[in-house]
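Run log, item B.
One chain of 406 residues. Sequence copied directly from the ordering sheet:
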Amino acid sequence: MSDFHQNGNITTLHNLRTRSLDDLEYELQAFGESRRITLVLPCLYSELEGPALPNILNELKTVPYLHRIIVGLDQADEAQFRHAREFFSELPQTHMVLWNESPRMLALGERLKEHGLYPQEPGKGKNVWTCMGYLIACADSSVMAIHDCDILTYDRSMLASLVYPVANPTFPYQMAKGYYPRIGEGKLNGRVTRLLVSPLLIALKKVVGDRDYLDYLRSFRYPLSGEFALRTQTLPDLRIPSDWGLEIGVLSEAWRNLAPQSVCQVEISDAYDHKHQDLSEEDASKGLSRMSTDICKAIFRKLASDGTVFTPNLFRTLKATYYRQALDLLESYYNDAKMNGLRVDRHKEEKSVELFAENIIRAGQIFLENPNESPFIPTWNRVHAADSAFLRDLKQAANEDAAEFA
């Protein structure tokens, strides 16, 4: 996206194709001497057997400026944990594989349950939260970056672009959010961003009126990207959602905790593709159906906390307004794809819009029926206040797992 447009709400850092990767990495190495950089990789064991992660590993092996890599491993038994440690042993950087279902980790979870602080459900949010806790316990990094482990088009330039804004000590940014076009196999992808989030934010502005928070979210070119970087001083007070509203939740936390001048988005790829979720029309607890409901709830919760009053009639109006906006944007996306030689299945796109419209109502009903629902995992500051030895014991448990199952 070789332009230099700024929207005025947050800074957009573009790739104008005027600087080499070697030059960028050389500067990051210099920053890393005094501002250590850690990469967090939340992954499922099944991703070790997929097509993306082996290439990601090969790319990461050549990254010169990383101080540490933390791998959060979900859905693995003992044998699979051993295999994962062998798989990641090729990394030349200091690295740690956290086995989230190990007996030691489960015992720590029981301690949290006694305080009422245990995450409500497993998933990416809990995985990221645990990795953050380990990083806080290490107390030796200034920058944390996160990206997914299913990126089929990965190369190390993505990471360099992602971390540079928060690693550069002369920049004011506490958080950088990656953006890119979702393209793969000759198709225009990114259905949830294109067909749910974008038209929903437009519809919300029409229905509930001007809100700075809505303008803030609309400033992000790809608000659902799983790639972001933070200065570690922000981590102890960061509330991580446990459901599929993780990406929106982190943006909302940045809105709550940071000044707009401290947040930026950065272009990290010309073409990005990863595994695709099923629409899951028949089962609202899975796939894009579950994701769309959780995202809507995350946005509604944040608006309510800022004083917006939601009613059943408002949600019905919102659904109708969203549906019209989504169909208008669908036409725009179709024409954009056509001009660039990409395929878009208009029938499937409209089916997605219809499902998302229904899920706006479903999310609204859940929100109204459960006003006290809190899907957020407690902040690490709160965990430390309840159990001052927990972070130390988390780090020790990870180290003991690594030693026992070497």
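Observations after the first pass:
- The radius of gyration is 21 Å.
- The chain has 14 helices and twelve strands.
Flagged for discussion on Thursday.
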